[in-house]
Amino acid sequence: MLDLEDFSVPPPPILTTALSGTGIANLPNQRHKIVAKNGANFTIMVCGESGVGKTTFVNTLFTTTIKEPKNLSKRHMKSPSSKTAQIQITKAELEEKMFKVKLSIVDTPGFGDYVNNRHSWIPIVDFIDDQHEKYMRQEQQPCRKGVIDMRVHACLYFIKPTGHTLNPLDIEVMKKLGSRVNLIPVVAKADTLTPTNLEKFKQNIREVIAAQNIQVYTCPIESDDEHVTRRNHNIMTALPFAVIGSTQDVVTFDGRKVKGREYAWGVAEVENDLHCDFKKLRSLLIRTHMLDLITTTEEVHYENYRQTQMETRKFGEPRTEPNENAKFREDEEALRMRFTEQVKAEESRFRQWERQLLNERDRLHKELEAQGEKVKELQSELEAYYHHQRDKSLRK
Predict the structure, then answer these.
(1) How many CA atoms lie within 13 A of 84 on its CB side?
(2) pTM
């Protein structure tokens, strides 16, 4: 009897080239030249309520005016009919040391600004899924030259510095986003909390994230370089990142000119690790882990979406839209309940009217019977009178 191991293919031998080499070690250099020539696409989504400093943070992060500040005087002019988040895309091209990055900033104005925010996160989730869908459809085309890639590589979720913990809206939205994109929680306006309260707030957020099983982005920590491992560990221990955003130059008490916010007690510096985690977040997004964010989006989130879609439809078939739109589910339910209440009210009114008619019918029947009895009595009296008159006439 033959053993299957007899037919196993041995691994290829590892050959060592001569000391001078053949040049295969130059492949990373070739790859570097190709990447440097083509540049990179990088898309960041900033999500959070109005007034937490998303625009200021973006401009501070890239040290230039990427997004124009909003006109606060027109904030009260929002359309009351649009009670969900909107999507605004700002594109820019940054160049540093002959390397270009095509940057896209996705903002979500209107998120969390209403009394009822139950469905405000749906346009955000739909946008992320739509970008995966558009990229997948482009990959299925015969010609894939000039593919437009707007997949979101990092989503910064800004948390209001309440000092307590995540609210139900934050938990629900972060659950939806964590399974679709590299989610990075950020505590906005960290200079409004004392160091003790800020650390307690961050610990409460970490506990809720663990308890609710919310998926957040975690960069690779272990490395052959001990310095890199220690740096990655310091970055991850700062999660959620407490940041201060400011594009203004202020002068400290010791005469240094820094980016920060000036108060009566001193200056809150943006790039001071003792004041906030801005430098760690910038390092995570741009300096050390931008490629990992892009790769994770490609190999994890996009692949999860692609595999899920390919399991439920044929190649080239469009995505099936849900029969029920969740945005209007609550309104539909409210209309159904109101219609039911109106039907019940009309039925109650009809039953009451029917009872009144029946009572009136019974009353009329009783009156008719009473009148019939009176008629019979009158007929009896009339007959008795006729008999009496006839007997009287006969006696005469």
Answers:
(1) 13
(2) 0.71
In the sheet with 249-251, reading across from the earlier edge strand, the strands are 249-251, 257-263, 266-269
pLDDT per residue as tens digits for the range 109-148: 777 666 556 667 788 888 898 999 888 888 888 887 778 8
Task: Please give the torsion angle defined by the CA atoms of residues 254, 260, 261 and 265, in that order, rounded to the nearest 10 degrees.
Answer: -30
Q: Give the pLDDT confidence of 180-194 residue by residue, as tens digits.
A: 899 999 998 888 888
Q: Hey, is 155 helix, strand or coil? A: strand
How open is the CA angle 253-254-259, to the nearest 5 degrees? Answer: 70
The contacts of residue 127 (CB under 8 Å, 6+ apart) are 87, 106, 152
Residue 106 backbone phi and psi in degrees, to 5: -105, 115
pLDDT of 344-395, one tens digit each?
888 888 888 988 888 888 888 888 888 888 888 888 888 888 887 777 777 7
Cα 229 to the center of its chain, rounded Å:
32
Cis? peptide before 240, omega within 30° of 0: yes
Q: How many CB atoms lie within 10 A of CB 137?
A: 12
d(CA 355, CA 176) in angstroms, rounded, equals: 55
The predicted pLDDT at position 74 comes to: 55
Question: What length does the chain have?
Answer: 396
CA distance 388 to 235: 126
Pick the CATH number of 32-70+78-320 from 3.20.20.70, 3.30.420.40, 3.40.50.300, 1.25.40.80: 3.40.50.300
What is the side-by-side strand order in the sheet with 154-159?
Answer: 88-96, 99-107, 40-47, 154-159, 183-187, 241-242
Burial of 184 (0-12, 13-18, 19+ CB in 10 A): buried
Q: Which long-range contacts (CB under 8 A, 24 or more apart) does 279-282 make?
A: 280/234, 280/235, 280/238, 280/241, 281/184, 281/186, 281/238, 281/241, 281/243, 282/61
